[in-house]
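Field guide to reading this record: the first block holds the primary sequence, the second block holds the structure written as discrete tokens, and the final block holds curator observations. Each block starts with its own label. This record concerns Pectinesterase, catalogued under organism Pseudoduganella albidiflava.

BLOCK 1 — SEQUENCE
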Amino acid sequence: MMRAALLLAAMLLAGAAQAQDTGAAGRPQLSAAEAKRFTIAEVLKTTGRAGAEKTDPWDPLADPLARNVPFTADYTVDAAGRADGVKTFISVQQAINRAIVDAAAQPGGGRQYILVKPGTYRELVYVPASARPITLYGEGATAADTVISAGLDAAVPVADYIRQHGAQFARLAPAIVEMHAQIAARAPTISTSGSMTVWTRNHGFQARNLTIENAYNKATGNARDECGERVCGTPDQPQARVSHQAVALLVEGADKAQFENVRLIGFQDTLYLKSGETRVTARSFFHKSYIEGDVDFIFGDTTAYFYRSEVKSLGDRTMSYVGAPNTNWRTKYGFVFNEVKFTSDGSPNALAGKYYLARQWFHNSRCSPYAPVAVAGYACTLGTASAYQAPKGTITPTVLETVGKMVVMNSRIGAHIDRARPWSDWNAPGTLAYRPAQFSSDDFFKNLKNAGFDPVNHLGYGKQPLPPDVYLAEFNNSHE
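BLOCK 2 — STRUCTURE
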């Protein structure tokens, strides 16, 4: 381990070098041969532990969900109907609960289908891991006819969460109660990963023809503050937290989760794709769907494919980032967007053309080893925990290797995205949360070395990948 003084000197040199490299490689492009590695079949054929994935081919377009095959409902949700508690319900969560109970009683059965009649269902919906996969589908003319909506944000006090929603989870299946209890046990707030409207851990979970919304700030706009818990980080305010993170959908560890003609509505952090455990990825597929938001609104560390969909940046804040992947460096694929329209709401901020496709989430970092910070004696060294107590901090190998991977191909990119530099650094040099954009494994290894971390001796990595692994890239995109 280098001494703090040597580390700071290395950071000073790294900061200057990285500023040049980022500008020179602002828009890396895949070759036609490289692009073939990012087809649906290739990206979605492996899952599991990073660096040791198992092969499990998956073709979501062949599934009845994508082919719009009519389903026969096992359960029906109708807010205007009369519930019998067995087959018909007025609450989506109650129908999910019954499906989980029935799956436990009949674990060898097939997929369970839940029809949700048109209407707006103002509730939280938690779907635990189960012996049987669940399909949730609407029957309206459009996905907008069937809406599941709530309005939690990351700064909601736990006591308020319990008061507002505790009764909803009383007397449900133990696995659902446990999900609620995990949020209720936090303090003092529910945090970003407790703010979701719909939360699924169900392998093979499907949704079709419906809307999932986090309505937080939707009536007023989200421009009240320009700082979020993954945006701020200065030496004098190292733990700045505000209330703009508000997740619509959290897919946690659910492999082969599939979404067809689904609308995801929110501002910051609309869609969270989270591994069930560190360095283990699962797969999600979004087809003919619509996702909107402003900051980091598609984020997480799993493998996800977005196909023939629309992704809209909302512009009432002066910053906007579509993606915030924190993919582990050994995981083969992060987020892939293929034949996607990147649009905006046409607001003045969007028209400025300075929004971004993504920035790589420096997940759980408390200090940065990648550029100098204006604090006397500052150092950020390798440690067993990520922490900062001025002027020194530590960072773990797990945090260092959440590099973030995202490829955009065959897509139409609106004029709201910065044409010269669509990939952003994570925050600005000089802040505790800063990390430069890393376009490949070459950048990753170079940055580690410049920061004083030997990839082999300090982190236990093998040889540097050759050819380099792709982290951020494009192929065959067009522009407005």
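BLOCK 3 — OBSERVATIONS
The longest helix spans residues 4-24.
Residues 32-224+240-363+405-424+473-479 form a domain with the Pectate Lyase C-like fold (CATH 2.160.20.10).
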